[in-house]
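G., the chain you wanted modeled:
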Amino acid sequence: MLDLHQYLESLRRESPQEVLTVAEPVSLNQEVTAIVKALEAERKLPVLVFTHPVAADGRPLAYPLVMNLMASRRRSARLLDTDFSQVGQVYARRIRERRVEPIVIDRDAAPVKQVVKRGPDIDLFEFPAMVHFQMDPGPYISGGFLTTVDPDTGIDNTSLQRGWIVRKDAIRCYLTTYSHNRWNFNKYEAKGEDMPVAYWIGHHPLAYLGGQARLDYPESHYAAMGGLMGEPLRLVPSETFGRDLLVPADAEVVIEGWLRHGRRYPEGPFGEYTGYTGPQIPNPELEVTAVTHRRQPYWMNILVGGADNHWGSYAIEAVIYEAVKPRVPSLQAVYLPMSGQARFHVYLQLHDPNPGDAREAIMVTLTTDYRVKHVFVFDDDIDIFNEQECLFALATRTQWDRDVMIFPNTRGSALDPSVAGVLTTKGGIDCTKPPKTAWAERNRVDPRVLEQFDLRRWVSAGQEAAIPLERQ
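Predicted structure as tokens:
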């Protein structure tokens, strides 16, 4: 049975250096953010467990906070039994080929039902929700999956969507325009009805990866989660809605309630995935009717706009790979780098491309996800996971009067601060060598020399470690 407790125990046992427990009191008002960002600047992404979080008003809180659970692409690769470069492709194949239907268990067997609170007992401020950045108006849920059902079919949908805790029993939720949860909400509003919803927070990383899958509408995320986990996701009826809204039995926390129709409230601003503060937006409010959780739950959080938000790109890489590969068989790999906030930039790697492959790959990629803004296409002698290599190709293999494609008035992200209104300009650059033509050879060391090479003959490990790192 996979859950967050089981995963952290196994990670501590098998790779203890990847779990950092912070036992000193830490303020949830931006101090946690500062710690995460300082480690990230050193390219260190351990899972962080804060055992003594302190609310913004100085109150010590009882439940631990978990950060960076999903921050490491290397850890995600291990979970998917692959390597760093193949995460997107393996994710795509697993989501396409493996679906395991969930099972429903009795509430007495569900860890998330160990504590049940209703009415005046509900107090969302007992959980270590963070104020992430200086413009945030208060504590936010950023690592919670908001779950709804399509009123026409009863099929579930789950999506990471931010929620501002404005009162002990109320959350203002940002349902992004193109999300399936927004489409479900639109249907309820058209009928003049409130929408049943539940946030679930904290689970095994494979469950989180499955919850991010880009699926058809309507299509169940619960089966996709089970497919990645390799076992049925255990579900349990919600307290408020029963079997009409099932929730993960092995989650850490579940927050249930009604998303009220026909009313909007100021929500935000919020430090978003773009690396900028997203604007205040009129959004609906969730009236909380019940909270259930484990006796000692972990509160799972994601630092949006940092490495901990990068894992959401795997699903986009998967969609792009599945869309482009049938049209451009020379496609080898897809990568959404953090330099593009893991959403705006896409790097494609092609093997021996035919004339026109790069341009067609650019056009297909730009239509797969509205947030994708720029596409760069490289030969397979360029390591697309090394941006120094990518910039080398951009510098030496492109002529922009020939290799740049520009598409104005296309659908973009409303959170992109450079967008005026709802339309953006997208583009791509063909950074491949002209096909079937002679091209200058790259500088390389003869492989016969490298076979005999051992740096330690001349430079000891201690000497190398003492050499200061330089920015390049």
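The mean pLDDT is 94.

Shout if anything looks off.
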